[in-house]
Amino acid sequence: MTHSKRFFGFCYAILLIATYAYPTGTLAQNSQATPPGASTRPAQAYSSAVATEWFQLALLITQQTPGFSPPVAARALGYLGLSLYESVAPGMPQHISLAGQLNELSSLPWAQPDEVLHWPTVANASLATMTRMMFSNASPENKGRIDLLERSLPLKHSQDFDPNAVTPEITSRSETFGKLMAMAIFTWARTDGGHLAWGPLRRNQPNYVPPSGPGKWSATPPDFASPLLPWWGEVRPFVLKAPQDCPAPLPPSYSEEPGSAFYKEASEVYAVSNQATQAQRQFALYWADDPGKTPTPAGHWAFIATDLLKTRQASLASAAEVYARLNIAMADAFIAAWHTKYTLNLLRPVTYVQLVIDSNWVPGLMHTPPFPEYPSGHSVQSSAAAAVLGQAFGVDAPFIDNTHNDRGWGPRSFNSFNSAADEAALSRLYAGIHYRSAVLGGQVQGRCVADKVLAVKFRR
Fold first, then answer.
1. Residue 21 DSSP SS3
2. Could you tell me if residue 197 is inside a domain?
3. Alpha-carbon separation of residue 147 from 128, 129, 140, 141 (angstroms)
């Protein structure tokens, strides 16, 4: 698409917003002038099927689309969750818009008080539109899957798309509102600084040169790849006022002296990696969630949420709130983690061990990712996700994780979300790519992010 066409599309979105927009947080009620046979049911009255099917497809496309590293994937899922929530919020009488609460998002479209909308149709149109825009570089096959899912959902889930209750006029109006919401949110998304981060470097920034000196990060074997997303810590968060609002506690001071706290941490990584138990090795591989092979760490937790929404037969309204909170928290967690990583620029265990302990050592299970060590991104993101899901489903709720069943690694049972998050965090120590302080510090940072997101007001 040419730049002029893009510009025209966004101008059209703004024109539509001017037509539909309501003051921040205002909930419009349906009028009594309801067309014959029209559905006036709230979003709570419908199943979560539309939402769960779209997120299942989004996870597949995340895995198969180039450039969707963990932070980029979390961002895309965050905007999908927000689009779902905002598109059906007018059909949730006790809920309010997040406009005015999220950074630089002052207003969004809102349903006209005299227009009846069908919420599964609204959600279907909104998620289809946002998925196309977030995954604009998806393969032709996956773009075809997006089109097919949008067309097939009304037929596949006829209990939510009753043609006797939803007139063609309501369907058309609902589709328009859903598309409008997605376009408005995508227009806002384009200003966050992360929209092109997975493609060419932003033109107004020079190539990143890591600082040098004792304890500083440098490229790691075997590929010695360039640092991944060095500017991601500058992306605008959804909720955090700034990435440093949730700092990770500082790691031990760098030292090469035997007996120092830093030396002991590196020695632990070296010893655990060399002597890992079979269970520890399985944990490391299970939670690796490598991009290109899996839907990434954020996708892992979104998969868990999707399973729970389906097994608990959640409503569309419940799914909208869960997906919004969870994915916003994970997106902000990666921004906070990346800001800390590239502020401290701490060297990885493989670099320290080769320099100080054993020049021939490399982690045996996986390659070290190409970015600074502290904190562990898995620890930050998993801790944030677990706290949000605990609030939604119960802190001590047991669950079954089916994320990697198709790879022969599941299902696996956990007693709580926190126990799963703790395992995910420690898996990076067992893999030989993080010090223990990076795991523990990351957990502190992730819980802080979750607290900020859980404080956002979704309800009256």
1. strand
2. no
3. 8, 10, 11, 10
Total residue count of the chain as it appears in this document: 460
Q: Indicate whether 208 belongs to any domain.
A: no
Is 365 buried (19+), middle (13-18) or exposed (0-12) by CB count in 10 A?
Answer: middle
User: In terms of residue numbers, what domain contains 279?
Assistant: 232-454
**Structure-token pair, residue 30:** 């349906």
Distance, in Å, from the CA atom of 63 to the CA atom of 344, rounded to the nearest integer, reads 30
Q: Could you tell me if residue 179 is left (phi over 0), alpha (psi between -120 and 50 degrees) or otherwise beta?
A: alpha
pLDDT in tens, 290-301: 999 999 999 999
User: Which of 189, 209, 242 is where one domain is finished?
Assistant: 189
**pTM for the model:** 0.92
349 and 402 part of one domain: yes
Cβ-based neighbours of 427, under 8 Å, separated by 6 or more? 283, 284, 286, 287, 288, 378
Claim to verify: residue 276 and residue 131 sit in the same structural domain = no
Query: Could you report the per-residue pLDDT of 378-437, keeping only the tens digit for each?
Result: 999 999 999 999 999 999 999 999 999 999 998 999 999 999 999 999 999 999 999 999
Q: What is the pLDDT of residues 203-239, one digit of tens each?
A: 566 788 999 999 999 999 999 999 999 999 999 999 9
